[in-house]
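subagent[fold] <- orchestrator: predict structure for attached chain, return tokens only, no commentary.
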Amino acid sequence: MTRAAAPSLPRSRSGFPVLRPRRLRRSAPLRDLVRETLLDPRDLVYPLFVRTGSGTKREIASMPGQFQFSVDRLVEEVGQARDEGVRSVLLFGIPDRKDEVGSGAWDDEAPVQQAVRALKASFEDVVVVTDVCLCEYTSHGHCGVIRDGDVDNDPTLDLLARASVSHARAGADIVAPSDMMDGRIGAIRRALDEAGYSTVAILSYAVKYASAFYGPFREAAGSTPQFGDRRSYQMDPGNTDEALVEVGLDLDEGADIVMVKPGLAYLDVIRRVKHAYQVPVAAYNVSGEYSMLVAAAERGWIDRERAVLEVLTGLRRAGADILLTYHAREAARLLRR
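subagent[fold] -> orchestrator:
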């Protein structure tokens, strides 16, 4: 194959190119003027972990600077984030009890449901997104009903739909199923509509890879599988065509926003999804990505502030409209300087 010739540049009599890209890099105002990819605190969604009790703010050892909050302390945290410009949060629940089917996920008095009610009562302008999955609530740590040693897809759908309706009843603006069961978007959309919650949106974890970067999250949420792994339902990291299939199926079933997870190792997937579908695309800057950046910064190996903004800019540049990140408050403060 013959490589296409590079376009010729206008040249001066000395032969040096007339076009000098460095002209527009020589000062911060000039760089700001021509920047192609912009970050804004309004692009950010702040993932938070909520548990039972009161007065609790428990640091997560593998995610320095991140915490499990009781509902009262969560409201304080969200208020501070809101004042810094972050207006969207994603809630994960830490239950007191677990069982084989994860029934705590649809308990109207569970931590997530309590937190949603408290946040909606406190803030009119905060978007509350709730993670819908069973792994935090099941005794075995998998994302659905177990049959013959594996997750049984179809019986799990009704349970996910019940959890979604419970979150909507509490006041969630968006439910975000992360389980990767086939058909769950359609099941949830029907259940929401039938229960009178047709205005509640669905953010689908449409493209969720079986990734090594979830390790710190599993400590934070207490969701490590007690046997096997999740590769029978989460995607193989080598596949990108499959990502487009997954997104197409979820959109056909009623998803309003689609997500690629993780973010950094899958920038090409974000780009392909955004080019293929003209819908809002989210990227999750996951726990392992957060923790490795923090660890490197703590050792003085990288400049933390610059790295945070560079990572998030990279996700936006790849095509993500919405960024779910544990760096949300930090990034918002940096962007307001």
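orchestrator: received. Logging for downstream: The chain is about 35% helix and 15% strand. The CA atoms of residues 294 and 304 lie 7 Å apart.
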